[in-house]
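Risk register update: the risk that structure generation would not scale has been downgraded. Supporting records follow, first protein first.
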Amino acid sequence: MNNRKEKAVVVLCGGGSGCVTNIICDRLMRKSEEYFLIVAGRTPMPPRDEKSIDFIHFDIFEQNAGENLINEINKLIGTKGIACGVQNKVSAVINSISTGGKISYDTTKIAYLNYVSVNFMVNLAKSLNCALVHMSSLKVGQPENFDPTQLESEPAWRGARSPYAWSKLAAELKLLNSDLQDMSLIRIGLLDSLHAKKFYTRVRVVCDFPVTITEEKDLQNTIEKAIHAKGRHIVTVEHHVESNLQFYRRMSNRW
């Protein structure tokens, strides 16, 4: 009798080579005996430790994107299920970043994408009857106790960045108000990670206020717990808060 434990199927909807997507891939690929990982995004990711990653091209702006993604997921599970010891259904969808190919770094466009992608992921999790794990930043407040007037008076989010801030909160509220049975909202700060080097450095140049830092290992542990969690959870992954001066002193010998 074969008593081998079936691998949990995890679909990671990410930006292809984004820092958070890389971090999650590294963790789950190192535990390939526990997880069957499918990455859905704009660009394929490079192999991890010479192991290829099952990839599905995915863009929420394409016609029938949801239906096509589900069909491709089921095809992969059906093709590799028996040989790889895979469960016959998806355990969790992880939304690690706003996913869309026809987008620039214009904050207004990204603002629109924030809300649309979460709405899409909620419907995807319902269709696959699986848990949804969504990550969002700590930078714009918490939707469950948010006062809209705060955003208007907060200097850091005036002007072009305001649509982005509003959309992050609207997306989180959409998730919290959904009827998903199994859902985890993971709130993180800037990542203390080599994957996040370019983004991290750029943000610290333009922001002159204390920033919440999340360590890579803490995010990895939280993600893995959320994949298996039942029920609805809001988790804040905070490690420490530091100023620009503290940041540059700490990083001066690292990069």
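Supporting record for the second protein:
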Amino acid sequence: LPPAVGLVADAARRPHVLVAEDNVICQRVAKRMLESLDCTVDVASHGLEAVTMVKAAPWAYDLVLMDLRMPVMDGIDAATQIRQQLGLASLPIVAFTAEVGEEVRELCREARFDGFLPKPAERAALAAEIDRLVVSPGAGRASATGGSCGCPGDDKLLGDGGGRQGPAARECGSNLNNVDRKNCEQAQTDPGAGELVPPGLRVLLVEDNAICQKVALKMLDRLGCAVDTALNGLEGSNAAVEAAAAGRGYDLVLMDLRMPVMDGIEATVKVRRELGAAGPPVLAFTAEVRALTGVNLV
């Protein structure tokens, strides 16, 4: 069968999928899985490459499977450019990521993703997304409304790519929207949260990963914090020291551990050495739990 040259009109034509993924192993797994589903596949190694490929042939792709954490340009920015700068509101874009928190899903909704596939993706879940968004988008979205809100389809972000919710979003997907709204309202109105986080708390977020930075900024903003950011340990430690010297020191530093130029441990040691007891509290902001053994950041 020939590859698709636009939106697939029927199941007799092979969907053409763009996989935007920087990890070579994940690229191979996704490509093999898609080919087993009778798709043809192109691969981009980062978000900017994906945007460039779509821009060069906007009619060629029936679906974009977009990782979120990538170098050069992350998946959120890439999807935003495809939607806004290229004006491709109807091209289905599905988030393909290990980042499964509600804040990440909210970022994907704001960037107008059409679906969300957690890694490692199962073949059946990927096949369901292709059927829902590409092979039979009308029937696929309608069928998603028929299940209970605990079905796999309920994890979808479900929209038409133009900022409007489809029927599945209004029915089954509405549960996810309500959960996010509830979480947002609770963060803003919970008396306990207000007591723990004083309004206007000055926070320095030291984080090199764009997705983690965006998620943390959204959470801190909900708590009423005033946030500055730094992309590596050297930049972060310098910012903390300079702010203290100017009499506007930070109330808290959230410090990632794995960063280029200078890691979080070295950066914290530098802050402690230069500011001593007058320095701000430093909290490790990391998935590297074992790396904290014997380390006193605070």
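Residues 1-11, 139-194, 291-296 have pLDDT under 50 and may be disordered. On this basis the risk owner (M.S.) recommends closing the item.
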